[in-house]
């Protein structure tokens, strides 16, 4: 830095000239200009100081010069996590090269970025750079250190550029800057940093200290904020590489594989014919046979930070799922020589939990047991792996509960799918489908039949008026697929309706089931109506009918209430949030924990679960038409404004607005465990979100003027859910109330809704007679069926039921998948459990989050109390599985409780 030479004059009105040209003071109201040379630039810098006198000017200049010459010693501590295959792994020749880089102190190049602009040029100040060198390792974390000399005039640090000089990517945990007074500057990274050899563009990480709406962004960070968003959006061209962070949209055109065989071709989902939310674009080439479909590949791109982290100890990972799909399931098929056959006896089903299935010898020995320890045990004396299921909760408490009507009904309120039951509002029941195509629209369920089954307790009209009748209605959504599904060998399908009666003790009783086969050509429509019956034949037909309904419920639950409403519909929120909201935006920081791992699990689902010939197609009733059915349900039923829990309950007639009631709703069925526990969570979420939104939007006009926020909401509606973009029900985003409701809905769907439909899958579906996923035999009384079927049924009705259930292989593979999908990983992040780093830096937000956390702990206690209340028959009783799916926290494993922040599995 050049030292200024100062000359004084006895005349105050003369210019004070400095021989070096460093300082000029003009006139009585003097302006002092100080030029200095920065440490990294030849460009002159200018400091302008206004003075009231020459003597003051001299004093001010001396102070300015002294300040300009002063530096602060700043230390940066960088924490990098050891990863499998990353720069700190022990794999490959590049490992040695990276060790040399570490020894030379050239591992990471860091550059400090000021929040201020250069006062002379009006552009960003030159960053201050230093290399970080390795200083040690603690456990699975390696620390690096860099030292900077930062001029006092540099201003506050707003961001840090990072350049990875290694030959492989690294997982950067955080950066801490020490030297700016008592408080350290924290930067929470939690991100993969690509190798410079892959991409020369530096990564930027903003400090935790402040969240900024766009207009609040410090001048020195404005261009950087916009540049980072442009980088993340990409240009919409090219095939994505694994290390990239680009977020873009595409349709679901990768579920089939037409190049392999015509039978594996699948329709494109997304567009006018098959409406669907959008997924992340991968840019893979199109198939040879279908120019609209994308080629499948071993690697499915997701933006790098959306992938499962190799840092954590995962019980579920890409490796786990791939091992399950590509190794374990084929081994099960080999082990079960008669895998396409039904279980001969119920005792054979029990043997899966007591004796297990001996698997073929794997290579290496014990491979399956290492990957899937809950499912596979190693037999020490033979070296074989043994597939041995742990008893699920429904079997452990009461193995025969699934046989009872009371449990069949109870699970519509407190089971795996409590989101389909709805109030019966109109009678007679009439289909909305075209009778010319499907046959007569009127149901065969009559007034007389319902009143008979209600045992003369009440008339039909009174039951409707008093809201005592409910329906599980899978008629119109399934009927268009019945004949298409029946073309698939070994499966069948009906449209179905089930009517329930609300008893005086607050429980449901099933009254009647209607199964429908639509007409086809000259074959007329067939409708069968089934009740409990008073003789053996009717009683067993009733059990068969219940098995069909449960199959329908299992398929609809998996395809729509689970996959579509949580996994699929959340992915566009994630893409839009990353493309339109800066990581400095407070709404980005609120939503980010609720998107953890969703895109990765969705990519794995497209690869293995919902793909052609995947688990869903081979083991669930709609078969190869499963994904198309989810599209039909999305088109018919999905509305963003109805995804909020209160709106969903009201829509189904399960609640009404009541300002005097708790949560502002009065439930139609008081003992409705999913609704009661869900409303506790919903209320806690909305209180937290409203407090957060008020912190950053004290004036409602800030919502409408926030261009990033408005672009985000527009992209969610018009691109992410493009096939619904013109619907009138999309909420406006003009006030803080609008914003709070939108955010609460997204958070609820990713947390409470998903937990309710996912983490009980093994509890309720692990013993598959309780929840069969496939019906393989038609009702023996169906019109046009061979008489021999009825004779076999009359002779051995139990065998007829077993033959209707999934085959040995279908049941076993679904049980294995449900076990994996119901498992919490050891690093699970639960709702309200841990504050984000940026929230801890803001006192107001931190206090609001602490209240949220305290409320969730209180909800845990309330749910435990409810499960111990013998008056609540829908959640407690002899052999009843308590309703714990919405208890906020859980230990790792298959627990049937715990509400993670996100759709992470």
From TrEMBL:
Q: Where is this region: Disordered?
A: 258-293
List, alphabetically, the Gene3D superfamilies matched. Answer: 3.10.450.60, Lipoxygenase-1, Domain 2, Lipoxygenase-1, Domain 3, Lipoxygenase-1, Domain 5, PLAT/LH2 domain
Alphabetic keyword roster: Chloroplast, Dioxygenase, Fatty acid biosynthesis, Fatty acid metabolism, Iron, Lipid biosynthesis, Lipid metabolism, Metal-binding, Oxidoreductase, Oxylipin biosynthesis, Plastid, Transit peptide
Give the Enzyme Commission number.
Answer: 1.13.11.-
Gene Ontology biological process terms in this record: fatty acid biosynthetic process; lipid oxidation; oxylipin biosynthetic process; response to wounding
User: Which molecular function term from Gene Ontology is one that the record holds?
Assistant: linoleate 13S-lipoxygenase activity
Pfam families reported in the protein's UniProt record: Lipoxygenase (PF00305), PLAT (PF01477)
Q: Which GO terms describe its cellular component?
A: chloroplast
Q: Which family does it belong to?
A: Belongs to the lipoxygenase family.
Name listed for the protein in its UniProt record: Lipoxygenase
């Amino acid at each position: 830095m050049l030292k200024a030479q100062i000359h004084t004059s006895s005349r105050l009105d003369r210019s004070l000239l400095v021989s070096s040209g460093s300082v000029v003071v003009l006139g009585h109201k003097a302006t002092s200009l100080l030029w200095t040379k920065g440490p990294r630039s030849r460009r002159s810098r200018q400091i302008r100081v206004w003075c009231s006198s020459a003597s003051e000017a001299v004093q001010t200049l001396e102070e300015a010069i002294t300040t300009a010459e002063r530096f602060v010693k700043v230390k940066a501590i960088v924490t990098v996590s050891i990863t499998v295959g990353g720069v700190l792994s022990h794999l490959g020749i590049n490992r040695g090269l990276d060790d040399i880089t570490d020894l030379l102190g050239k591992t990471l190049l860091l550059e400090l970025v000021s929040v201020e602009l250069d006062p002379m040029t009006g552009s960003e100040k030159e960053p201050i750079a230093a290399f970080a060198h390795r200083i040690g390792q603690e456990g699975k974390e390696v620390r690096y250190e860099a030292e900077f000399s930062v001029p006092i005039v540099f201003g506050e640090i707003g961001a840090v550029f990072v350049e990875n000089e290694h030959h492989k990517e690294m997982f950067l945990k955080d950066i801490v800057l020490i030297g700016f007074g008592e408080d350290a500057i924290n930067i929470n990274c939690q991100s993969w940093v690509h190798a410079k050899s892959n991409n020369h563009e530096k990564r930027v990480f903003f400090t935790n200290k402040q969240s900024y709406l766009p207009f609040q962004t410090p001048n020195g960070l404005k261009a950087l904020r916009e540049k980072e968003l442009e980088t993340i959006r990409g240009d919409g061209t090219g095939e994505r590489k694994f290390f990239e962070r680009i977020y873009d949209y595409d349709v679901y055109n990768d579920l089939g594989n037409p190049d392999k065989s015509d039978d594996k071709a699948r329709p494109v989902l997304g567009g006018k014919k098959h409406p669907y939310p959008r997924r992340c674009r991968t840019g893979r080439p199109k198939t040879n046979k279908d120019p609209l479909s994308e080629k499948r590949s071993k690697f499915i791109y997701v933006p790098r930070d959306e992938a499962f982290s190799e840092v954590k100890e995962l019980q579920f990972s890409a490796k786990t799922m791939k091992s399950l799909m590509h190794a374990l399931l084929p081994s099960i098929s080999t082990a079960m020589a008669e895998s396409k056959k039904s279980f001969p006896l119920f005792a054979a089903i029990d043997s899966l939990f007591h004796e297990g299935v001996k698997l073929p010898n794997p290579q290496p020995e014990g491979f399956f047991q290492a990957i899937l320890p809950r499912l596979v045990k190693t037999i020490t004396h033979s070296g074989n792996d043994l597939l041995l299921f742990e008893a699920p909760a429904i079997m452990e408490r009461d193995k025969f509960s699934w046989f009872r009507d009371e449990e069949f009904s109870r699970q519509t309120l407190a089971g795996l799918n409590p989101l389909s039951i709805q109030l019966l509002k109109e009678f007679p029941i009439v289909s909305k489908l075209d009778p010319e195509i499907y046959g007569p629209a009127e149901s065969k369920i009559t007034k007389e039949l319902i009143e008979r089954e209600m045992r003369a307790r009440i008339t039909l009209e009174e039951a409707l008026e008093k809201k005592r009748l409910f329906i599980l209605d899978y008629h119109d959504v399934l009927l268009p697929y019945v004949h298409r599904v029946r073309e698939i060998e070994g499966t069948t399908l009906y449209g179905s309706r089930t009517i329930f009666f609300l008893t005086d003790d607050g429980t449901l009783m099933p009254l009647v089931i209607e199964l429908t086969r639509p007409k086809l050509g000259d074959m007329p429509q067939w409708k069968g109506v089934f009740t409990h019956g008073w003789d053996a034949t009717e009683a067993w037909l009733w059990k068969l009918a219940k098995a069909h309904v449960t199959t329908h419920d299992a398929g609809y639950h998996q395809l729509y209430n689970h996959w579509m409403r949580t996994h699929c519909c959340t992915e566009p929120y994630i893409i839009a949030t990353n493309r339109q909201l800066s990581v400095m935006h407070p709404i980005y920081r609120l939503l980010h924990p609720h998107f953890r791992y969703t895109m990765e699990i969705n990519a794995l689902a497209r690869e293995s679960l919902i793909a052609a010939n995947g688990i869903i197609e081979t083991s669930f009733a709609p078969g190869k038409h499963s994904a198309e059915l989810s599209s039909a349900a999305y088109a018919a039923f999905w509305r963003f404004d109805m995804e909020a829990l209160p709106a969903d309950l009201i829509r189904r007639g399960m609640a009404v607005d009541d300002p005097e009631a708790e949560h502002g709703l009065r439930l139609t069925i008081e003992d409705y465990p999913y609704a009661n526990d869900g409303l506790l969570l919903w209320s806690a979420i909305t209180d937290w979100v409203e407090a957060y939104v008020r912190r950053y939007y004290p004036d409602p006009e800030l919502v409408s003027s926030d261009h990033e926020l408005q672009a985000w909401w527009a992209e969610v509606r018009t691109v992410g859910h493009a096939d619904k973009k013109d619907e009138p029900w999309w909420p406006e985003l003009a006030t803080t109330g609008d914003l709070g409701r939108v955010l609460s809905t997204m958070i609820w769907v990713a947390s409470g809704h998903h937990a309710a439909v996912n983490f009980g899958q093994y509890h309720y579906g692990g013993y598959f007679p309780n929840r069969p996923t496939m019906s393989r035999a038609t009702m023996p009384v169906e019109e046009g069926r061979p008489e021999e079927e009825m004779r076999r049924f009359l002779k051995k009705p139990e065998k007829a039921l077993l033959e209707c259930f999934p085959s040995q292989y279908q049941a076993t593979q679904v049980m294995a998948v449900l076990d994996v999908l119901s498992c919490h990983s050891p690093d699970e992040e639960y709702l309200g459990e841990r504050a984000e780093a940026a929230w801890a830096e803001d006192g107001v937000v931190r206090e609001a989050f602490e209240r949220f956390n305290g409320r969730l702990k209180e909800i845990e206690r309330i749910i435990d109390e409810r499960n111990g209340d013998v008056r609540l028959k829908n959640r407690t009783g002899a052999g009843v599985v308590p309703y714990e799916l919405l208890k906020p926290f859980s230990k790792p494993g298959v627990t049937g409780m715990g509400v993670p922040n996100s759709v992470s599995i």
